[in-house]
Design a protein that fits this description.
- With 285 residues, the protein is of the alpha/beta class.
- It has two domains: 121 residues, 3-Layer(aba) Sandwich (D-Maltodextrin-Binding Protein, domain 2), CATH 3.40.190.10; 100 residues, D-Maltodextrin-Binding Protein, domain 2.
- 42% of the residues lie in helices and 24% in strands.
- The protein has a six-stranded mixed sheet. The protein has a five-stranded mixed sheet with strand order 7-6-8-5-9, with helices on both faces.
- The longest helix has 30 residues.
- It is elongated and about 55 Å long.
Length: 285
C-alpha cells in the first residue's frame, strides 16, 4: 500500500512540473522582447495579417484588353505593393451582367460605351470616375493558308465563303461593330446565315487561327496577338462610331481608394504607354 502511494506521489509531481514549465513558456512569450518585422515594428495579429494579405481589387475588363492589362497588373503591383489586382476578362456585355448581378467588382473597363452607359443609368458605376482611355480599330482576318479570294468585306458574299465568325453582338462589342459595318455595306442579310457567333473577340481569333472558319472580325490589337503564321489581316473595316474604351469605378466597391489608383494608372502616362505598345490608340492622342 505504501509503495503504491509513493508511485502516485511521483506521478503527481511529474504532472505538476510539466504544468509549471508550460506556464513559464506562456509568460515568456508575453513578457520577452516582442517579435518585430523588417521595419522593426512589433508584429501583432492585425499587422501580420495585413502584411500577408494586401488589399485586393477585382478589375473586370474587356477580353481585348487581356495582354495590355496583364502587363499593367504587373507594373502596378510593383509600384503599389500593398494592392493585389485580380483580373477578370470576358465580353463587355457578360461583364456588365455580372456587375448587375452583384459580382464583387471594383473597376470595369469596357470595349464600348453602350455597356458602360447601361451601368451608369442604373448607378452601378460611379459616373464621376468614368474616363475614356483608349481606341481600337476593326479588321477582317482569314486563315494564313486560305486560298479564298478575300480582300475586303464584299468578298464575303461569294458562295465559296461558308463560315464567318463574329462576336455575339449581345455580349461582345466587336460583334456589334461588325454587324453595323456589314449592315452599312448592305450585305448583312446575305451574310447572317454564314455567321458563327463567338463569346468574345479572343474566341473569334481562335476560330480563324485553327482554320475552323473562312474569315472573322477582330480588333487590330487582337490580330497582333495571333500565333505567328496563323492568320492574315486582309482589310481594315470602317465603322460609323469610334471604338472607344471607357473605365470607371463600380459603385458597390469596398476598395474605392485602391480602385481609383488603378484607374489613374491606366489613364496616366505609364498605362497609356503600355496600351500603345499593344496597338491601342491612347486616348491622350
Amino acid at each position: 500500500m505504501r509503495k503504491e502511494l509513493i508511485v502516485l506521489l511521483v506521478i503527481l509531481g511529474v504532472f505538476l512540473a510539466i504544468g509549471c514549465t508550460g506556464n513559464g513558456n506562456e509568460a515568456t512569450n508575453e513578457t520577452d522582447t516582442p517579435v518585430t518585422n523588417e521595419t522593426g515594428a512589433p508584429v501583432t495579429n492585425e499587422t501580420s495579417v495585413s502584411g500577408q494579405n494586401p488589399d485586393a481589387i477585382t478589375v473586370s475588363a474587356a477580353a481585348s484588353l487581356t495582354e495590355a492589362f496583364t502587363d499593367m497588373e504587373s507594373q502596378f503591383e510593383t509600384e503599389n505593393p500593398g494592392t493585389d489586382v485580380n483580373l477578370n476578362f470576358a465580353g463587355s456585355g457578360n461583364l456588365r451582367k455580372q456587375i448587375e448581378g452583384g459580382a464583387p467588382v471594383d473597376v470595369f473597363a469596357s470595349a464600348d460605351q453602350k455597356n458602360m452607359d447601361m451601368l451608369a443609368n442604373e448607378t452601378f458605376i460611379d459616373n464621376s470616375t468614368r474616363k475614356d482611355f483608349a481606341e481600337n480599330s476593326l479588321v477582317l482576318i482569314v486563315p494564313a493558308n486560305s486560298d479564298l479570294n478575300i480582300t475586303g468585306i464584299k468578298d464575303l458574299t461569294a458562295s465559296d465563303v461558308e463560315k464567318i465568325s463574329i462576336g455575339n453582338p449581345e455580349t461582345a462589342p466587336v460583334g456589334k461593330y461588325a454587324t453595323q459595318a456589314l449592315t452599312e455595306a448592305g450585305i448583312w442579310d446575305q451574310l447572317k446565315d454564314k455567321t458563327i457567333l463567338a463569346e468574345d473577340v479572343k474566341q473569334v481569333l481562335t476560330y480563324v487561327e485553327r482554320g475552323e472558319v473562312d474569315a472573322g472580325f477582330v480588333y487590330m490589337t487582337d490580330a497582333k496577338t495571333a500565333n505567328p503564321g496563323t492568320i492574315k489581316i486582309v482589310a481594315t473595316v470602317p465603322v460609323n462610331t469610334s471604338i472607344s474604351y471607357p473605365i470607371a469605378l463600380v459603385s458597390a466597391s469596398d476598395n474605392k481608394e485602391e480602385a481609383q489608383e488603378f484607374v489613374d494608372f491606366v489613364t496616366g502616362e505609364e498605362g497609356q504607354e503600355i496600351l500603345e505598345k499593344y496597338g491601342f490608340t491612347p486616348e491622350s492622342e
